[in-house]
Design goal:
- There is one protein chain.
- With about 425 residues, the protein is of the alpha+beta class.
- About 30% of the residues lie in helices and about 25% in strands.
- The chain contains 14 helices and 20 strands.
- Strands 16-13-15-14-18-19-17-20 form an eight-stranded antiparallel sheet, with helices on both faces.
- A hairpin with a 5-residue loop joins strand 14 and strand 15.
- Helix 10 runs antiparallel to helix 11.
- The radius of gyration is 21 Å and the shape is globular.
- The two termini are about 30 Å apart.
- The model has no long low-confidence stretch (mean pLDDT about 95).
């Protein structure tokens, strides 16, 4: 166990904290002792992952729990189709280990740097017509509660905690291990091609219905989009060539995009022209590979992000409003707008809880002014009862969130029972969950 009281900063650099201490327990039992001692001393405890959340969900002036020693695969149960893994295991490490065993998660988001507990606790998701978020693939989890107890949760064991803790925001306890449903590794064929905004929005319902995983990016200040369709394939494996992959994913998506963002931050008037050139430079490509190599891609350009889940049927109207707002404004937006989908799930604070959802995500380059843009987008999304991603910037509070989550009261009542003294509390949770 290490004890460091140095400043903590998230990936985007927009959130900093100075915890009283930073500890890296090597076991659930050691963690339980830390939590119990902190509670007795009147200190708060917050677990942190890799800092990929843009909100202050992990910020604390109390004890910061680092996950780097709670890692690795604990058990693979092929008969049950599950894998149990330490909470601090990065998704990249899990994906590679599963692939070596001929297994895979069913769906993933577009990056894999997060820890499994950090990703699931904030509701990280990909896009899927039928397959839901990473948290929806959890079949069991273990967490340390505020009194130092070790609680095992599943549909059969502490089911009321399981219903909430899969996306628990760090408010119910510190997750120590997670059991995911897995399946034999399969192939996905990715088809990426440019498409005009009017066509994508007109055919959105059809594109979602016809593809297992559909998403698209709209380039503000243009009428251009890039669409992505991922569907299961019988093969053969046909990955991008190493040169083609480097050009597309490193040179264009990271290197040149980084340079373009830097120019746009220095000279905002240049952004519309850059967007037109960038969106026209996209060419179609098709490739086939194992899931994590298709779902995820490197993201080296630092940014901040806001994302809202709206009812699936409202997606096109909300997006058209967003485009009209940008077109008539003086805003200069250098990052594409990302649109994804998810089926309804049964997790209390999932952004897709109880309703088929579409996600609309907006980004700004780190250091560029974002407040006016994000405020205008939020105004549009909340008019459609939008639910903000828990790990991405938003201004909503408990009063608003209680109105868009039918099971909000169920979650807060469970929190009152498991953590009445708010050992796991911080300013962000006070805002979004109340006191």
């Amino acid at each position: 166990m290490t004890d460091k009281s140095t400043a903590w900063r998230n990936w985007a650099g927009n959130v900093t904290a100075r915890p009283a201490g930073s500890l890296a327990p090597a076991s659930a039992e050691e963690l339980a002792r830390i939590v119990a001692a902190a509670a007795e001393d009147g200190q708060t405890v917050k677990p942190v992952g890799t800092g990929h959340s843009f909100t202050a969900t992990a910020a604390t002036d109390g004890v910061l729990i680092r996950p780097e020693r709670l890692t690795g695969i604990r058990e693979i149960d092929r008969a049950a189709g599950t894998v149990t893994v330490g909470a601090g295991t990065p998704l990249k490490q899990l994906s590679q280990a599963l692939a070596a065993e001929g297994l895979s998660l069913t769906n993933m988001g577009d990056i894999m740097e997060q820890t499994v507990a950090g990703a699931t606790s904030t509701g990280t998701h990909g896009t899927g017509r039928d397959s839901a978020s990473i948290a929806a693939q959890i079949t069991a989890l273990e967490l340390v509660t505020a009194d130092g107890s070790l609680l095992r949760c599943s549909e059969k064991e502490n089911p009321e905690v399981f219903a909430a803790a899969r996306i628990g925001l760090g408010a119910l306890g510190v997750v120590t291990s997670i059991t995911f449903a897995v399946e034999p590794v399969f192939l996905l064929t990715a088809r990426e091609e440019p498409m005009r905004f009017d066509r994508v929005t007109a055919e959105f319902g059809q594109l979602v219905a016809e593809n297992e995983h559909f998403e698209f990016y709209w380039f503000p200040h243009t009428a251009n989009c890039n669409t992505k369709r991922n569907n299961r394939s019988a093969g053969p494996v046909a990955p991008l060539s190493r040169v083609k992959g480097w050009i597309d994913d490193e040179l264009l998506s990271n290197g040149l995009f980084q340079a373009a963002c830097s120019v746009g931050r220095a000279v905002p008037a240049a952004i519309p022209g850059i967007a037109r050139i960038s969106s026209r430079a996209i060419s179609a490509r098709t490739y086939t590979d194992i899931p994590y190599k298709v779902f995820t891609s490197p993201r080296r350009v630092r940014f901040i992000e806001m994302e809202y889940a709206v009812p699936r049927e409202a997606a096109v109207d909300a997006l058209r409003e967003l485009k009209a707002m940008v077109d008539r404004s003086d805003l200069r937006v250098g990052f594409p707008v990302e649109v994804r989908v998810a089926p309804a799930d049964d997790i209390a604070l999932s952004t897709a809880s109880g309703r088929e959802s579409a996600y609309i995500a907006v980004h700004m380059y780190r250091g560029a002014p974002h407040q006016a843009y994000f405020t205008a987008v939020e105004r549009i999304m909340t008019a459609y009862d939008g639910r903000p991603h828990w790990g991405k910037l938003h201004s909503r509070d408990a009063e608003y969130l209680a109105g868009v989550y039918p099971r909000f009261g169920e979650f807060t009542a469970l929190r009152d029972r498991l953590d009445p003294q708010r050992v796991f509390g911080n300013a962000y949770l006070r805002r979004v969950l109340g006191d």
